Amino acid sequence: MNAGADTGSWQEHMFRIVTGVEPIFYLKVDAGPGYKLVDGLQLDFTPPGAEEYFKVNGDTLLGDYTFTGSVRDYFGVEGSMTIQMSFVQGHSPEIDKDGVMDGADLTRLVQAYDSVSADAYYDRDCDINLDDAIDQEDLRAFATGCGCSGSG
Fold first, then answer.
1. Contacts 24+ apart (CB under 8 A), 12-21
2. How many domains does one find in the chain?
3. Nearest one of 38, 51, 45 to 13, comparing CA atoms
4. How is the chain split among helix, strand and coil, in percent rounded to 5?
5. Is 39 helix (H, G, I), strand (E, B) or coil?
6. Closest CA to 82 of 102, 103, 65, 98
7. Nearest-CA neighbor of 39 among 6, 76, 75, 63?
8. Do the Cβ atoms of 34 and 147 come closer than 8 Å?
9. Is 76 in the same domain as 141?
10. Residue 5: its pLDDT value, please?
């Protein structure tokens, strides 16, 4: 199915996803490093070029999830892939909600760093672990979220 090409209801399309006829999500490869998950339901119901990134409900149970399935490129070449996700309590480390973890997110985190909820420069969106303080734990969660965590 192509983006914007679905003529049925979203419920019909969701049924096709749940029964395995259509993908839950698509893997998008960008020029930069890494991949993005594009929501299978949203991809078919948004205009071309306005892809929606993979979303989960707010009531998704916390924990680790693994998706294993086939991957097919535009030329029909198939392979398999396993994607692991962990859902934890807290805000997304993608702070400004523009769909990309980048320098703008890090800038906001640094500006609010070492603040508590009573401080004027406290930014609730930067309090990733929801403990009313922007500290080392939030910085660690940000680094893990952007794939730039390491030792040291």
1. 13/41, 13/44, 13/45, 14/41, 17/41
2. 2
3. 45
4. 25, 25, 55
5. strand
6. 65
7. 6
8. yes
9. no
10. 45
Taking 50 as the threshold, does the pLDDT of residue 59 lie above it? yes
- Which contacts of 29-36 are long-range, i.e. CB under 8 A and separated by 24 or more positions? 34/147, 36/99
Rounded to a whole number of angstroms, the CA Rg of the chain reads 18
Lowest mean pLDDT among 46-55, 89-98, 124-133: 46-55
Measured CA to CA, the distance from residue 121 to residue 106 in angstroms comes to 15
The residue whose two tokens read 């922007």 is: 134
Model pTM?
A: 0.45
DSSP 38: E
**What are the beta bridge partners of residue 25?**
39
The pLDDT score that the predictor gives to residue 113 is 95
49 lies in which domain range?
10-87
Q: Per the domain annotation, does 128 fall within a domain?
A: yes
For residue 9, pLDDT over 70 is answered with yes
Q: Is residue 127 part of a domain?
A: yes
SS3 call for 61:
coil
